[in-house]
Specification:
By secondary structure, the chain is an alpha/beta fold. The chain has 11 helices and 12 strands. The chain has 2 domains: 1-116 and 283-314, 3-Layer(aba) Sandwich (Isopropylmalate Dehydrogenase), CATH 3.40.718.10; 118-280, Isopropylmalate Dehydrogenase (3-Layer(aba) Sandwich), CATH 3.40.718.10. It has a 7-stranded mixed beta sheet, with helices on both faces. α1 (15-27) packs across α10 (297-312). Homodimer. Probably interacts with PlsY.
Length: 329
């Protein structure tokens, strides 16, 4: 199996990518890891024997306009990675770079699965029980019709079972109340359609309950999902910053912090996004994974683990097969 990685993207690139790749190369010696980046960056390191280099001449910065960038920079690490997956030169591609550019390149160069109207960006949110919840969409498409939410639910259920290991994953619909009649006309129609699917649909889910693990897959439009994602990250950051302030305020607080330190570390680990790898772009014809922009080496290694299982479990062919059955019906 060959997994390609964008060396140029991310807040901590290229160091975090190099370190994460070394961890993964040691853990899975059967993998071929292909690093895509500018030649001068790639040549600055030494690598394990199962790492290959693919030099490019361009890279896409975080602030560039996605569509213009991928059209203008055809030899950038993001475009080349997506094209390698399309051409069968890599089984998966991972990037922590420009999210919009990766989504655009995935659509233009890797392509959608037949029968999928809109791909979805699907990260795993940490939950209080440590299992996590797959949320889709969080920004690939700001708007979504009821039939798109149905496709998200079906793709998410397959991914949650095959990659995340959830048996009969519970699928919920993000809404402003748990009652069936709540929400907009779109969510009401989506509720009706989801109820008819051969999945374990548990109904509407309110945002305040998401982190309590009431479902394994949460379906929403990209606008709502992105707000949920950013709010969750912001609240978590604010809580940990405030705790740090309080625990260092007085000597008594410092003593209490020392006593609570093991428990706080366990809690921080359980709520750490880096433990869950990256976010797949479900609905594309190849395995494309978006790593968090602030990914460290641990997050990159986990994204590689996730991409490996993505390919091993043949998620794309299973999604294609299920949607294909619908077309034949």
């Amino acid at each position: 199996m060959r997994i390609a990685l964008d060396v140029m993207g991310g807040d901590h690139a290229p160091t975090a990518i190099f370190e994460g790749v070394r961890q993964a190369a040691e853990q899975w010696p059967d993998l071929r890891l292909v690093l895509i980046g500018r030649e001068e960056v790639l040549q600055s390191q030494t690598y394990p024997s199962n790492v290959e280099l693919h030099p490019v001449t361009e890279s896409i910065d975080a602030g560039e306009e996605p569509v213009k960038a991928i059209r203008r920079k055809k030899d950038s690490s993001i475009v080349v990675g997506c094209r390698m997956v399309k051409e069968g030169k890599a089984d998966a591609f991972i990037s922590a770079g420009n999210t919009g550019a990766l989504m655009a390149a995935g659509l233009f160069y890797t392509g959608r699965l037949e029968g999928i109207d809109r791909p979805a960006l699907a990260p795993v949110f940490p939950t209080m029980d440590g299992r996590g919840v797959l949320v889709l969409d969080v920004g690939a498409n700001p708007e979504a019709k009821p039939e798109h939410l149905v496709q998200y639910a079906r793709m998410g259920a397959i991914y949650a079972e095959k990659v995340l290991g959830f048996e009969q994953p519970r699928v919920g619909l993000l809404n402003i109340g748990t009652e069936e009649g709540k929400g907009t006309e779109r969510t009401k129609e989506a509720y009706s359609l989801l109820s008819q699917l051969p999945i374990r649909f548990v109904g509407n889910v309110e945002a305040r309950d998401v982190l309590y693990g009431v479902c394994d897959v949460l379906v929403c439009d990209g606008f709502s999902g992105n707000i949920l994602l950013k709010n969750t990250e912001g609240v978590a950051k604010a809580i940990f910053e405030r705790l740090k302030e309080e625990f260092t305020r007085t000597w008594l607080n410092k003593l209490a912090a020392a006593i609570l330190k093991p428990g706080l570390k366990r809690f921080a680990k359980a709520m750490d996004y880096t433990e869950h790898g990256g976010a797949p772009l479900l609905g594309l014809s190849g395995a494309i994974v978006k790593a968090h922009g602030s990914s460290d080496a641990n997050a990159i290694a986990n994204a590689i683990r996730q991409a490996r299982r993505f390919v091993e479990q043949a998620v794309i062919s299973q999604i294609s097969g299920e949607i294909g059955d619908d077309r034949r019906d």
